[in-house]
Amino acid sequence: MRRLFFVLLLGVLAAAGTQVARAAEPLPAPSPTPSESTPAPAAQMCGEFGHEVEAALTKLGGYDVSAPDCAAIKQFQERYGLQPVDGIAGRATNDVAQRLIASDPSQCVNSSGRGVVACVDLTHQTTWLMKDGTVVYGPTVMRSGMAGHATPAGDYQVDWREPKSWSVPYEVWLPYWQSFNGDIGFHQTTSYLHEASLGSHGCVNLLPADAVAYWDTLGEGSSVRVFGHRVGT
Description:
The protein is 28% helix and 24% strand. With 233 residues, it is of the alpha+beta class.
């Protein structure tokens, strides 16, 4: 009986020792929760087209794509009148970025190679200013005529300017008006420029800051070259 008691006692002590040894072993680190995982690259957090837009901004220059919180994309959206300014690169933001980098200044050179010329690229819906063969402003975005009111390609000159002109047929004010082809000219947009279903009645609609820059740079007699073709017109 006493022998059986000692055998049982030794078994209990051995089990207890095993439990103590196990308790002394370090516990494995918990698996990270999604919020604790390695942060995704900035472009992935900046919308569906984050990578594409950041690559375009690098080509355009002037944007710090390494800045946190998608700041470069927010800066880009604010500059080109995109809404909302949230740093999320959606389809509209990417569309503007791709159009800008696709614009080719070599397609618009004043035949004399001298003086100021306003270039209007109907294909990419962009515009820029050149002086003596060098781009001095832009490219930036614009909106030309819609179907049935296509802006005609050709070489023109600014022939009529008013800081604020009244459009009789459409009953709307046209800020920074600069005519170059009869009733067709540059002016500040009167609606959201990036609404794809809209277009002008032939004029070249500009963002407010661009309309001011064109007003300050061009004058009567300044050359205007319109080329390309807007899809759907």
